[in-house]
Design brief:
The protein contains 19 helices and no strands. The protein is mainly alpha-helical. It has one domain: Amino acid/polyamine transporter I.
């Protein structure tokens, strides 16, 4: 069976974290915090390193398709594992429409069509990702490696060409919405840094998990941090107040830096990057579904094989696009789910890891608790999913208990029946023979 290399794993990790975040987050964060959104960017980058290291350490020691769900099961038992597995598994299809909406914004910027164009872009992305994963992780990983290279080149060109147009005056006023806006921006930016937990589900697919998972993850952390910070800083300094209302900030930056018809190019690249991000999540979720079915936390008929699980996640994404929920709320619902996964995953790491890795996990645990609080009411969806998973697990245990008791009762009745009904030989020996003369029997 083909295995992931370090370069493919790095590409999957970076693609899962960057993708839609880099093409959309600078504008969304600036809309709620202004130039002070840079503070939130720095905070999330600093948090990303210990968080990624925590999941890399867990993946290296416990490589399994269940990812965070497996770590939580080892630390806290099957019901907690089912809860975290459900949260992530059902958050992925909920987040797919939001991810594709950012690419759809770039396409609509070129073609027009508004909501119809955004929906069309979503279905194209889902079809491509479904096909890639249907033919296996080897094909998916190679495509991701190409997409990661395209992303890095695009961002480098964008920063180099646009930065000479930077104006320090665009940093004033620095915090037009107060520093409460920084917290709001940080809650949104969790979307842009989610992805490390998705790659944990692929740890068993590396050639040498103990060696390769930490290498791939930490290379991805450095790449992601540098690219995010450079593009966020350039966006604020070059676009200024116009950044907050931009639907295609990368296209705007390239237009400033290069001029000419760059919007078509950036729309194509935005779609490719979105395919890369959704691909990484779908690959991780499809394997998580198999692990949940293996551990009896989901019905085997629903997600018992990678292709069946992939179909469930894909159909779930296509259904969630019809929900009457705006993009901002959808993002907070998904980031609330991912943040609770982080909370439970880092708590498991504190219990399972040792030495410095445990200290790093402890720091990450405290930090993600703060992010969960910043997320606010939308984080309640994650608690609903967790409660549903625990209820399913408890119902399954009760059903299994009834089956065991019924089987034991049936076995006891069968044993009693055998005692009450002696064997034919014994019955013949005990029962009087009607053809035998009682007198003769007496004489004997």
């Amino acid at each position: 069976m083909s295995r992931l290399t370090v370069s493919q794993g790095t590409a999957l990790s970076a693609g899962a974290v960057l993708g839609t975040g880099v093409i959309s987050m600078p504008a969304l964060a600036a809309a709620v915090a202004g130039p002070a959104s840079l503070v939130a960017w720095v905070a999330l980058i600093l948090l990303s390193a210990p968080l990624a290291w925590t999941f890399a350490a867990l993946g290296a020691r416990h490589p399994d398709g269940g990812g965070v769900s497996t770590y939580v099961r080892l630390a806290f038992g099957p019901r907690a594992s089912a809860a975290v597995g459900w949260i992530f598994y059902f958050a992925v299809p909920l987040g797919a429409p939001a991810a594709a909406a950012f690419a759809g914004g770039y396409v609509a910027d070129v073609l027009g069509g508004g909501r119809t164009t955004v929906l069309g872009t979503f279905f194209v992305v889902m079809a491509v990702v479904f096909t890639m994963n249907w033919f296996g992780l080897r094909i998916s990983g190679r495509v991701q490696l190409i997409l990661a290279g395209v992303l890095a080149a695009l961002l480098l060109i964008t920063v180099v060409t646009a930065l000479p147009h930077a104006q320090l005056g665009n940093l004033r006023p620095f915090a037009p919405h107060g520093f409460a806006g920084v917290g709001a921006a940080a809650a949104l930016l969790v979307w842009g840094f989610a992805g490390w937990e998705a790659i944990a589900s692929l740890s068993a697919d590396y050639r040498n998990p103990r060696r390769d998972v930490p290498r791939a993850t930490m290379i991805a952390v450095v790449v992601v941090g540098l690219l995010y910070l450079s593009i966020a800083l350039t966006s604020v300094l070059v676009l200024g107040p116009a950044l907050a209302s931009s639907t295609a900030p990368l296209a705007d930056l390239l237009a400033v830096g290069l001029g000419g018809p760059v919007r078509v190019l950036t729309a194509v690249i935005a779609v490719l990057l979105t395919i890369g991000a959704v691909n990484a999540y779908m690959a991780g979720a499809s394997r998580l579904g198999v692990a949940l079915a293996r551990d009896l936390s989901l019905p085997a008929g629903l997600s018992g094989t990678p292709r069946r699980s992939l179909a469930v996640v894909t159909l779930g994404g296509c259904a969630s696009v019809l929900l009457p929920v705006d993009l901002h709320t959808m993002m907070l619902l998904v980031t609330g789910c991912f943040t609770l996964v982080y909370v439970l995953g880092t708590a498991a790491a504190v219990k399972l890891l040792t030495g410095r890795s445990r200290l790093v996990a402890g720091f990450a645990f405290v930090a993600v608790l703060g992010l969960l609080w910043l997320n606010g009411a939308p984080a309640l969806l994650s608690l609903v999913l967790a409660a549903a998973a625990i209820a399913y697990h408890a119902g399954r245990d009760r059903s299994a208990g009834r089956d065991r008791r019924a089987a034991a009762a049936q076995a006891e009745r069968s044993a009693s029946a055998k005692i009450a009904s002696p064997s034919p030989i014994v019955a013949e020996w005990v029962a009087p023979n009607p053809n035998t003369n009682p007198a003769c029997a007496t004489d004997r």
